[in-house]
């Protein structure tokens, strides 16, 4: 049954303390898996934190990965993955809340962002989904994390979905904004209705030399425009944007972004070493681990989750956050935190 509640934030510091109680009252916390809930929210206007602290650096796979960590070293691991054109600061409020609950929170810069760099100048700057997922598994290996709850949005949600599918033993729980968004390159060859195609204008722009040059020259303005389009009700300030925009100055950023979107459209090849993984993903495999998916205004008609609910065969729930845009962890951090806690509660139930 779909429940609805409208939540207005009197003050963010107050609300994040009360959210658990609010959700418990409407039957969400410890609800039966496969339940659905709709929340009518208003985006946070100002974060309570401005920094996650200096990043740590480790060699993992083909990368030297920059990441931040919060919470006790012996806590349940939670890996949070950002999207494009965002960065680790999408979790600037989520991380301390989870740390306060005893979770070990790890937030890496994806390849092409922030302080993450390639170990070799000769390595192909590959943005395909399985390569990015392999980076995160390599990071887990380096940090000796056997498994973790993995959450994300945009590129981060896709990466989390891929790990949950290809390496389910490494993912004990999944929180995926926008749901099941594993790329099927063959399916992407099919045209959409004109209005739907309009929403992907930047992908077609990136398919051109002009698009690559334009993004390279104007990436700051481009990113800000995407933020505004993807989250029209989120009145983020300049300081909030600039903290994340700095991560886009990575020297590999443009190459990774161009390859990612061109590969999705079948306009650029991937690397042969990932072919077997991509073949598995091309079959749109189901996800069997405990999962919560979240739809928002950004997802349009897909926000209700009905189009992909059948892809989740484990303990599962779908939430809808009306009034919230694409950068959901930063716009509604306390509710994203509750999703992590909720999916953790599915373990062993």
What's this, in brief?
The chain has 349 residues and is α/β, with parallel strands linked by helices. The protein has helices at 12-25, 94-100, 129-142, 155-166, 194-198, 201-206, 209-230, 238-245, 253-264, 275-282, 328-331, 333-345, and strands at residues 2-6, 36-40, 56-60, 63-70, 77-81, 104-108, 117-118, 148-152, 171-177, 291-296, 316-322.
General shape: globular
Tell me the quaternary state.
single chain
In the CATH hierarchy, the third-tier topology is known as: Rossmann fold
Summarize the biggest pleated sheet.
11 strands, mixed
The tally of helices reads 12
Percent of residues in β-strands? 15-25%
| Structure class | alpha/beta
| Poorly predicted runs of 5 or more residues | 1-19, 24-33
* Named CATH architecture: 3-Layer(aba) Sandwich
Give the end-to-end Cα distance, rounded to a whole number of Å.
21 Å
């Amino acid at each position: 049954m779909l429940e609805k509640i409208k939540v207005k934030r009197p003050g963010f510091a107050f609300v994040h303390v009360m959210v658990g109680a609010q959700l418990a009252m409407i039957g969400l916390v410890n609800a039966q898996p496969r339940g659905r809930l709709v929340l009518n929210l208003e985006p946070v206007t100002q974060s309570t934190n401005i920094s996650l602290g200096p990043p740590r650096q480790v060699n993992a796979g083909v990368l030297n990965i920059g990441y931040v960590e919060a919470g006790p070293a012996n806590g349940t691991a939670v890996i949070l993955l950002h999207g494009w054109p965002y960065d680790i600061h999408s979790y600037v409020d989520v991380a301390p809340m989870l740390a306060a609950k005893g979770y070990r929170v790890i937030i890496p810069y994806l390849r092409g962002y922030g302080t993450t760099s390639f170990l070799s100048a000769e390595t192909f700057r590959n943005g395909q989904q399985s390569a990015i997922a392999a980076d995160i598994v390599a990071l887990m290996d380096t940090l000796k994390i056997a498994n973790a709850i993995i959450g994300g949005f945009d590129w981060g949600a896709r990466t989390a979905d891929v790990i949950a599918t290809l390496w389910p033993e490494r993912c004990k729980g999944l929180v995926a904004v926008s749901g099941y968004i594993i790329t099927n390159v063959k399916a992407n060859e099919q045209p959409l209705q004109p209005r739907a195609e309009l929403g992907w204008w930047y992908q077609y722009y990136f398919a051109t030399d002009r698009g690559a040059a334009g993004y390279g020259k104007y990436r700051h303005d481009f990113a800000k425009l995407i933020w505004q389009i993807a989250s029209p009700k989120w009145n983020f300030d300049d300081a909030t944007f600039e903290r994340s925009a700095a991560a886009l100055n990575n020297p590999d950023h443009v190459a990774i972004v161009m390859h990612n979107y061109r590969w999705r459209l079948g306009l650029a090849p991937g690397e042969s070493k990932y072919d077997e993984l991509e073949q598995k993903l091309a079959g749109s495999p189901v996800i069997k681990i405990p999962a919560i998916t979240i739809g928002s205004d950004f997802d349009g008609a897909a926000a209700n989750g009905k189009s992909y609910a059948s892809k989740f065969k484990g303990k599962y729930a779908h939430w809808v956050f009306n009034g919230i845009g694409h950068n959901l962890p930063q716009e509604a951090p306390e509710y994203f935190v509750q999703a992590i806690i909720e999916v953790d509660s599915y373990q062993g139930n």
